[in-house]
Write a structure and sequence with these properties.
Aldehyde Oxidoreductase, domain 3; Aldehyde Oxidoreductase, domain 4; 7-stranded mixed beta sheet; 6-stranded mixed beta sheet; 19 helices
Length: 803
């Protein structure tokens, strides 16, 4: 029998090509293309008074210079929409003052790095030379930097947005204020997470080629959503969608920043290719990524909580302020996720959450791996630790007393999630996960270890954090599967891949569902020429969405194969099975009558002409004709192939718990992670090795977000650490070995029982590490990330307060 593939730690089929240098990234394309560079604003807030390109016109290799006025002229002449503001991708009723940027600045710049002029030249060197010679005159305006400045609203980012508030949203269940006021115990906390950003190996990039004879546009872009870019580019350039194709080559990391679409460059580069009649290309350099892509994380929270003598929550009220930067193209997804995922695995009693999403003169904010969940987890877990400290209770015990129980699933939190549907947890065993975590990290024995370390002059501490992660967000994904006449199985899905191992994981599913050897399966992602309809790769949704889609598609192909083979084998469909790519009668074994799927593919496509040996078997004289049976049955199409779509009723919810042991140096305040333990529940594990790889990567980003990574803005809006010399990321030496255990509670919402895993590792990092530092130092930690110098000053403040 065929070895079952789902659940096996199959090595990734992508890796040999990628690790031997044979990947094809965006910058590997288009060596014959014109190249683009941009004049970007050096100021955070200013009006553009004049653009003088005179000195740039004699640069050798210059092809064209475009400003906003050129976009307006093109709109008037050709009916394009390139001069209009970029779309607000996800509207929301509470988003009353949504503002998005223009592809090139329309008279005003609102953050350092905003594009003002596009230069096209024979190569990037010439384009950069021309950029250096272009002079822009500005009228300076007062920049608004940081949440506090935005809240004060002494100045405005956009003149027509009162108070700098794009949106104000409230959700509540019960009367939280009354419950808190009546509770035996109450606490108030102010908590903060600072800005950070993803740093993919490869920045954004676009290559576009216009075929004038065919009147078609082909765009290669390093994106997480090729099908949506296709729609956006077609709309902006006033082209029929079927004349635009978007292909995603290998992508060196996405992490959420590449889900935004269209980026200005994804409009401008294809537009220039169309106007110039030549291939045009742009690749983002590292400074551009810092100052013109997207950041995340920055939020301030005020928490009021009421609880009983046992530490059980009676009421929770949270108000927070979210910094979304100069524009808000991705809507309120990040703060909505924070406000709803904050609850984690707990029953909060009555709950009220209110947030304001605020404009600042800084780079836009869009989802970054975790997408609002790290902030919510930090707030909830710091609150749990504060309750435990107030009551003198074990921190794990307080959590356990507030858990939703397995027999309460599905559990309705009474809120609306980011997909517009109920926040309804589908599955999970939170007490079971906690028991595993405590055993894995040695929670109950840690007090003795801490005392021994103190006797040695060392400071060690332990912390834990729990989370629930909404995954598999809709509305749909699809798949297409075709069996070739040689037995090869070709799988296509519209979702893109950025290094997660999708080709391997999806092939494992198809191998099991279709009964074919894993080695025969080829998977293509992110190519609209192969599959036209998709939503995108984000929110830990590929296994849930595309995995389910290719599973149901494989079942459709299997059903068709059995139906066709039943005639050839003169057996009933229900008596047939597919094993190792061969259809055979059940119970007959390897020596029984069978027909391979390649032959079934031939028989599925009745032909008039024989173009190879296999095709001969499908021509009209290859077998006696059945007068009562047409060559192609009604309702079917030729070929052994099918397309199917999967649309979930709502998101599914993964969960997990992390425990961290840290050591803090008594003299230097250096913080070292000694142990990092994870218990994770993503339902059915399709490939445990890939899941654990995703957790390892997430933990690395969580450690970075807790201890190193932050966007450091000056009051004038200048990003002070816009390079890898100043923006710190953890090396392998700073990322601990990750110890992992799994708990499997399958989701009832999809055919595979899977829940997403891609973002899990990063979500509780800041919360768990803050708790461990607090335990080691005896100093309250309310703000992350934290550096040794900040810990040092907290020690001084604590000593002064004690004296």
């Amino acid at each position: 029998m065929t070895t079952r593939m789902v659940g096996e730690p199959v090595k990734r089929v992508e890796d040999p090509r990628l690790v031997t240098g044979n990947g094809r990234y965006l910058d590997d394309l288009g060596h014959d293309a014109f190249e683009v560079a941009f004049v970007r604003s050096p100021h955070a807030h200013a009006r553009v008074v004049d653009v003088d390109v005179t000195d740039a016109l004699d640069v050798e290799g210059l092809v064209a210079i475009y400003t906003y006025e050129d976009l307006v002229a093109d709109e008037e002449e050709h009916g394009t929409r390139v001069a209009q503001a970029l779309p607000l991708l996800i509207p929301h009723p509470t988003l009353t003052h949504g503002r998005t940027q223009h592809a090139l600045a329309n008279g005003e710049v609102n953050h350092v790095g905003e594009a003002i002029v596009m230069v096209v030249a024979s190569d990037r060197y010439a384009a950069e030379d021309a950029v250096e010679r272009i002079r822009v005159d500005y009228e300076f305006l007062t920049p608004i930097v940081g949440v506090e400045a935005a809240r004060a609203a002494e100045h405005l980012v956009h003149d027509d947005v009162p108070g700098n508030v794009a949106a104000r949203m409230v959700q509540e269940t019960g009367d939280a204020d009354a419950a808190i006021d009546a509770a035996p115990h109450r606490l108030e906390l102010d908590l903060a997470i600072e800005r950070s950003a993803s740093m993919p190996m490869e920045g954004k990039g676009v290559h576009a080629r216009w075929d004038a004879d065919d009147e078609s546009l082909t765009v290669h872009t390093s994106t997480q959503t090729s099908t949506s870019v296709r729609q956006a580019v077609a709309a902006k350039l006033n082209l029929p969608v079927d004349r635009v194709e978007v292909v995603t080559p290998d992508v060196g990391g996405g992490f959420g920043v590449k889900i935004v679409h269209p980026w200005p460059e994804e409009v401008l580069v294809p537009w220039a290719a169309l106007r110039l009649g030549r291939p045009v290309k742009w690749t983002e350099d590292r400074r551009e990524h810092f100052v013109s892509s997207a950041h995340e994380r920055g939020q301030l929270h005020h928490v009021r909580v009421g609880y009983d003598d046992e530490g059980r929550l009676l009421g929770l009220s949270v108000k927070f302020w979210h910094d979304h930067g100069a524009y808000i193209p991705y809507g309120l997804i990040v703060p909505i996720i924070t406000s709803t995922q904050l609850l984690g695995p707990y029953k909060p009693g009555a709950y009220r959450v209110e947030f304001e999403s605020l404009y600042t003169n800084t780079v836009i904010v869009t989802p970054y791996r975790g997408a609002g969940r790290p902030q919510g987890c930090f707030v909830m877990e710091r609150t749990m630790d504060a309750i435990a400290a107030d009551l003198g209770l074990d921190r794990a015990l307080v959590r356990e007393r507030n858990f939703i129980q397995p027999d309460e699933m599905p559990y309705d939190q009474g809120l609306i999630f980011q997909d517009g549907r109920q926040l309804l947890y589908d599955s999970g065993d939170f007490p079971g996960s906690l028991a595993k975590l405590k055993e894995l990290v040695g929670w109950d024995d840690f007090a003795a270890y801490r005392e021994q370390a103190r006797a040695e002059g060392r400071r060690v501490g332990i912390g834990m954090a729990c989370y629930v992660e909404g995954t598999g967000v809709g509305p749909y994904e699809g798949g297409h599967i075709r069996v070739e006449t040689d037995g090869t199985v070709v799988v296509s899905t519209g979702l893109t891949t950025q290094g997660q191992g999708h080709q391997t994981m999806l092939a494992q599913i198809v191998a099991d569902e279709l009964g074919v050897p894993f080695e025969r399966i080829r998977v293509t992602t992110g190519d609209t020429r192969r599959f036209k309809y998709a939503v995108g790769t984000f929110a830990s949704r590929t296994a849930v969405m595309s995995g389910s889609a290719v599973a149901v598609t494989a079942r459709a192909v299997r059903e068709k194969a059995l139906r066709i083979a039943s005639d050839a084998l003169e057996a009933a469909v229900e008596d047939l099975e597919i094993v190792d790519g061969n259809v055979r009668v059940k119970g007959t074994g390897e020596n029984g009558a069978s027909v391979d799927l390649g032959a079934v593919a031939v028989l599925s496509n009745p032909l008039r002409y024989a173009f190879d040996e296999a095709a001969k078997r499908a021509t009209q004289f290859a077998a006696p004709a059945d007068p009562d049976k047409p060559p192609v049955a009604e309702g079917e199409s030729p070929g052994l192939e099918a397309s199917q779509f999967y649309s979930p009723p709502r998101s599914t919810f993964a969960n997990g718990m992390h425990a961290v042991v840290v050591e803090t140096d008594p003299d230097t305040a250096d913080i070292k992670v000694l142990r990092y333990c994870v218990v994770h529940d993503c339902g059915t594990l399709i490939n445990p090795m890939i899941v654990e790889g995703q957790i390892h990567g997430g933990v690395a980003q969580g450690v970075g977000g807790a201890l190193y990574e932050r966007m450091e803005y000056a009051p004038d809006g200048q990003l002070l650490n816009a390079s890898f010399m100043d923006f710190l990321m953890p090396y392998a030496s700073e990322v601990p070995e990750v110890e992992i255990d799994h708990l499997v509670t399958p989701s009832p919402l999809n055919p595979l029982g899977v829940k997403g895993a891609g973002e899990a590792g990063v979500i509780p990092g800041a919360a768990a590490i803050a708790a461990a530092i607090e335990d080691a130092e005896g100093i309250t930690i309310r703000r992350m990330p934290i550096s040794p110098s900040e810990l040092f000053h907290l020690r001084l403040e604590n000593q002064e307060a004690g004296s």
